[in-house]
Write a structure and sequence with these properties.
The protein is α+β, with helices and mostly antiparallel strands. It has helices at residues 27-34, 38-47, 53-60, 96-106, and strands spanning 78-84, 87-93, 111-119. It has a 3-stranded antiparallel sheet, with helices on one face. The mean pLDDT is 81.
Length: 129
Amino acid sequence: MSKTMTKRRSRRSKLDAHVHLVGRIPDREVAAMAGISPDGVRMYRQRHKIPAYSTYKRSLKAPTRAPTQPRVVTGELHAFQVVVGGRVCVVVAPDVVAAARRVSERGIGTVARIENLGSVLSPPPTTAG
């Protein structure tokens, strides 16, 4: 005796059209769109291992940390990369204000960007004259 196995049809869910929203907006809103109960959305979400909206919302929040600025030790020199009118220069100064001042005193243009490259390990050579 041989049994013929028939392929089982998968049932369609009212949520199939809204699956892209499940877990991205509250269950009650998805339920209202699909015409089912919020519990039905919750069970669908759990069956398909979709995290809850609250988890998704938490993941969107970026950590609110102040940008870290390099610590400047008094008397320590830093190298700054300065962009002036498309030209890139390196300026050695104790802080960013002094670096910008040195560039503007040269009269080579308006400073577009300044980036601290780091501490200078040896003092710059002095010019005689």
